[in-house]
Amino acid sequence: MKAGGSVKKIGVLALQGDFAEHMATLRRLDALAFPVRLPRELEGVNGLIIPGGESTTMAKLMTDFGLMAPLRKLCKQGLAVMGTCAGMVLLAKNITDTSDANITPLGVMDIDVKRNAFGRQVDSFETDLEVAAIGEPAFHSVFIRAPFIQRIGNGVTVLARLPDDTCVAARQGNMIALAFHPELTDDARLHSYFLTLVNGGGKK
Ligand code: GLN
């Protein structure tokens, strides 16, 4: 653990999904990772990760636990936030869906996201993605019933596209959205990149 004020306190939304894997990766990077389930647990966080899981369930629990309003406020105030897979869905302004699931997302990133955009569970896949923000080599990416980004608003930068141009990673200021699961591989470069945004570092 790094000494004194340099320790980054990163909350990981732990209502559902693979929050434990994110915490393990953050700890490998010497961040102080802890689970967030209640609004008061957001006090003093320097950054927040919203993990993969089931966005319908997570959105419902976030509403029930009173997390929506405080999270929206913190994002607007510049908290560093990374949403992966279902977490990306929750950051989006608009969700387009093939099912009739009705989700109210946080709506803090000016992107429109399509849920389950690559088909059913059997259509999950892995691929190596070029991500200029972290350099070479390509990032081995695990897509599990993943969403993709259908519309990018003003001030949003594309971080990665599939070979067919589908946008699967983006950044808007202090916020990062990834359609895949960087916590499921040993490569911690995207978590490191996220940590550069914490405390206002890593300007676009
Ligand atoms: N399909 C899920 C959803 O839209 C996301 C899956 C995942 O996070 N791996 O909520």
Structure write-up:
This protein has about 200 residues and is α/β, with parallel strands linked by helices. Helices cover about 20% and strands about 30% of the residues. The chain has helices at about 20-30, 55-65, 70-75, 85-90, 190-195; strands spanning about 10-15, 30-35, 45-50, 80-85, 90-95, 110-115, 125-130, 140-145, 150, 155-160, 165-170, 175-180. A seven-stranded mixed beta sheet has the order 2-1-3-4-12-11-10. Strand 1, helix 1 (about 20-30) and strand 2 form a beta-alpha-beta unit. The mean pLDDT is about 90. The chain binds glutamine (GLN). Glutamine binds near residues 52, 53, 85, 115 and 145.
- Give the neighbour order of strands across the main sheet: 2-1-3-4-12-11-10
Bound molecules: glutamine
Oligomer: single chain
Query: Could you name the ranges where pLDDT drops below 50 across 5 or more consecutive residues?
Result: none
- Shape designation: globular
Sheet/helix structural class: alpha/beta
Q: Helix count, per DSSP? A: 5
Please give a quick description of this structure.
This protein is α/β, with parallel strands linked by helices and 204 residues long. Helix content is 22%, strand content 29%.
List keywords for this structure.
single chain; 204 residues; alpha/beta; seven-stranded mixed β-sheet; three-stranded mixed β-sheet; 29% strand; binds glutamine
